[in-house]
């Protein structure tokens, strides 16, 4: 049986388009109250209006995840909106720096990739997981990637491996609680990040992308959820 997400506050990063937009719509359908994040909060205006017209409670926040001060401000905004009671954190936002020949990846590409794809999500989790433990419920999902054997995108793949490590090292801290942290791999998609040659449309992430949010406590933390393999999951 899936958990009831009715009236639980959920933050989705990178919610203005692509996978994040689908996650937000899926969580709204599950009854969540949504906080939509984008670099510019106005980028989520259209989605916010659509969800509000369906009766969903929606807030919008803007933050550049490459800027630690803006990440801290984002945490403050979310705490104000939720009264320190965020229950679902879905770290979807990510960047991919330019394709580079092997051994030619620039140091700034590694630094930017780690900041946006690992450090910012880790700091969000560090901020909100203690609240979840205090309230007795929480779901944290980090978007990972199945990328492999592409040294031309080494900065991106290394940053994703780092956030994978964060999730797995957090498991023992959450053991026995109803606060779960897991990984979701959406597959290769025709998004701005995935490009036009990808085999899967962004719509294909539903319902699978919601599975690590709706799972029961017994499923535990540290799992890897291959979204494209969960097309028949009952919600």
Automatic annotation (TrEMBL):
<protein>
    <submittedName>
        <fullName>SDR family NAD(P)-dependent oxidoreductase</fullName>
    </submittedName>
</protein>
<keyword id="KW-0560">Oxidoreductase</keyword>
<dbReference type="Pfam" id="PF00106">
    <property type="entry name" value="adh_short"/>
</dbReference>
<comment type="similarity">
    <text>Belongs to the short-chain dehydrogenases/reductases (SDR) family.</text>
</comment>
<dbReference type="GO" id="GO:0016491">
    <property type="term" value="F:oxidoreductase activity"/>
</dbReference>
<dbReference type="InterPro" id="IPR002347">
    <property type="entry name" value="SDR_fam"/>
</dbReference>
<dbReference type="InterPro" id="IPR036291">
    <property type="entry name" value="NAD(P)-bd_dom_sf"/>
</dbReference>
């Amino acid at each position: 049986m899936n958990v009831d997400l009715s009236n639980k506050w959920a933050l989705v990063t990178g919610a203005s388009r692509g996978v994040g937009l689908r996650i937000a719509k899926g969580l709204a359908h599950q009854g969540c109250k949504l906080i939509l994040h984008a670099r510019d909060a106005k980028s989520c205006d259209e989605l916010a209006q659509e969800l509000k017209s369906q009766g969903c409670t929606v807030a919008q926040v803007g933050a550049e995840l490459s800027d630690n001060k803006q990440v801290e401000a984002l945490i403050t905004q979310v705490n104000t909106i939720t009264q320190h009671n965020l229950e679902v954190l879905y770290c979807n936002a990510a960047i991919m720096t330019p394709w580079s020949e092997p051994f030619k990846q620039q140091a700034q590409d590694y630094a930017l990739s780690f900041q946006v794809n690992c450090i910012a999500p880790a700091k969000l989790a560090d901020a909100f997981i203690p609240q979840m433990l205090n309230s007795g419920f929480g779901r944290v999902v980090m978007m990972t990637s199945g990328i492999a054997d592409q040294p031309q995108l080494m900065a991106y793949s290394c940053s994703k491996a780092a956030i994978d490590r964060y999730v797995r090292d957090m498991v023992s801290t959450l053991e026995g609680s109803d606060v779960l942290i897991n990984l979701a791999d959406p597959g290769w998609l025709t998004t701005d990040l995935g490009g036009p040659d990808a085999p899967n449309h962004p719509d294909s992430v539903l319902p699978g992308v919601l599975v690590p949010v709706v799972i029961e406590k017994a499923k535990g933390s540290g799992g890897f959820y291959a979204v494209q393999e969960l097309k028949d999951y009952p919600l």
